[in-house]
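Work package 3, deliverable 3.1, input record:
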Amino acid sequence: MKKSVKEMSSKWVKIGAIAVLVFAFACGGKEARLPIFGERVVQGTDTVYHQIAPFSFVDQDSSVVTNATFAGKIYVADFFFTTCRTICPKMKTQMKRVYDATAELPDFLILSHTIDPEYDTVGLLRDFAKRLGVESKRWHFVTGVKDSIYRIAQTSYFATAMEDKTEPDGFIHSGAFLLIDKAGHIRGKYDGTLKEDVDRMLIDIKRLRKEYGE
Amino acid sequence: MANRLYWLLPLALLSACQNEPKYTQYYNEGQQLYEKHCSNCHQSEGTGLGLVYPPLVNADYMDAHADEVLCLIRYGRKGPLTVNGKEYNQPMPGVPLLTDLEVAEVATYIYNTFGHERGIQDVKEVGEQLKRCEK
């Protein structure tokens, strides 16, 4: 009697263990996929997700930066300007942390757009990047036509960026960091002024790389 | 001569005694103002950022240019400056809304944190210096 109880319980332990494993695998696998932001359109059996629109800007090396620059790469995008004294310095401090933490990742880049392209020229961005101590091949600081920058911020990245003379620095913009996957889909949005949120992003970058088997 | 030394005694005692309520009040208010107006760039720990924003930690510039530091807190500063052997050149916007007392509080905070120990930066002397700033 004693023995059979032991056998019974060991059987249940086994079943329980398998159940836990199956649960962990199924749900863990599901949990590992990051959401895709934005509208989606179902066309027959395909779902078309919101994607970053075509763009063409110039970076701190005077190189043209387009969607092709990020082909096969995961990247994080943000919007700032060098003379901003409010949230940008915090964002840049956090982004520098991201830059340092991703030094070993060959498929990861950073894209920072200036929203004050009249002041933030290529030369100024080059100086800024140099002073920050970052390499242009991993962190592109881009400038371009102002309207194009504002449009891509608002319609592609869902980030606020516009001029407003009533603001202390003359601009309204969000401190968001946007995580973009290799297909140009937004997979995460984070507050680039908060260390905790940027920590979450660093974890999500790892999760996203796992989707690509990295 | 003896007369002059006599005057120095209470001053020395005053600066030695940093736990007095006035110092604590200056320091605490200064810390809040620093967090609000300065820490975005110079960081809460005073480390600055790369060669963009200079550090306050052990900054030789703060010792060599104490008068100017008071001015730049309120009026900002443009042009290159060298801190601990490294050159920086990012324009710093001032905070013109700060009163003499608030500048003194910020100064008291930064000059008794980040490796500095200058004691209280009294509003009287700070106010006198602020009048001499080139605007």
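Residues 57 and 63 of chain A are 8 Å apart (CA to CA).
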